[in-house]
Design goal:
By secondary structure, the chain is of the alpha/beta class. Helix content is 47%, strand content 12%. The chain has eleven helices and six strands. A six-stranded parallel sheet has the order 3-2-1-4-5-6, with helices on both faces. The longest helix is centred in the first third of the chain and has 16 residues. The protein is globular, with a radius of gyration of 16 Å.
Length: 212
């Protein structure tokens, strides 16, 4: 067993939410700012700084309104949320092996809980969850990962973080734990992930199990 403790990002890693996130960004910016922003610009920071930081980067004076419109639209789309392909089976295997599992996400806790409500089979695998409100600093800072490890009573030896964004990989390296990149979220390109030199880069849940 290479990694006894495995932490996971949420969006694009456990849940197939890229399209929902993009739709909500488009809705918020067109509604509040009355302008169209290129998709790649809207999605560039997803998985790193929290929603507030992303909205402040778009328009600091209207960030609060952007957050409100985004959040309302995003919540309304969660009924169609699905797990990423093969993820539930992979989690089942890891759990059966006695691994300690956790979720570390830049999402607010209310949105994380909404995902668990829609996908109740997902919640049962995780011993700890860390959301945006739980730390003062966010990915790529390692603080959220270190908090999760502390709550699990684990150290960095034998731990890894699985994510689909460059911010996930940067945070894992800063925390001194293994970094596993997954490509199936399609929020960030494979090329962008490769530039972070992760310990492993996988395209399927089967490959993920082999890397862990």
């Amino acid at each position: 067993m290479r990694f006894r403790t495995v932490l996971f990002d949420l969006d694009g890693t456990l849940v197939d939410s890229g399209a929902i996130i993009l739709a909500s960004f488009r809705h918020a910016t067109s509604t509040v700012l009355r302008r169209e922003i290129a998709d790649h610009e809207l999605m560039a920071a997803v998985g790193g700084p929290g929603l507030r930081e992303q909205m402040e980067a778009l328009d600091p004076e209207r960030a609060e309104e952007l957050i409100e419109v985004y959040s309302a639209h995003n919540a309304g789309l969660h009924d169609g949320l699905e797990p990423c392909p093969g993820v539930l089976d992979a989690l089942e295997s890891l759990h059966a092996e006695g691994r300690r599992l956790g979720v570390v996400t830049a999402k607010r806790r209310a949105t994380l809980e909404l995902a668990f409500e829609v996908l109740p089979d997902l919640r049962r695998f995780f011993d700890v969850t860390v959301a945006a409100e739980d730390t003062a600093r966010h990915k790529p800072n390692p603080e959220p990962l270190l908090l999760a490890l502390a709550e699990l009573g684990a150290d960095g030896d034998g731990a890894a973080y699985v994510g689909d964004s460059p911010f996930d990989l940067q945070a894992a390296k800063a925390a001194g734990i293994g970094s596993i990149a997954v490509t199936w979220g399609r929020i960030h390109s494979r090329e962008r992930l490769e530039r972070e030199s992760p310990d492993a880069l996988v395209e399927t849940a089967e490959e993920l199990l082999a890397a862990l």
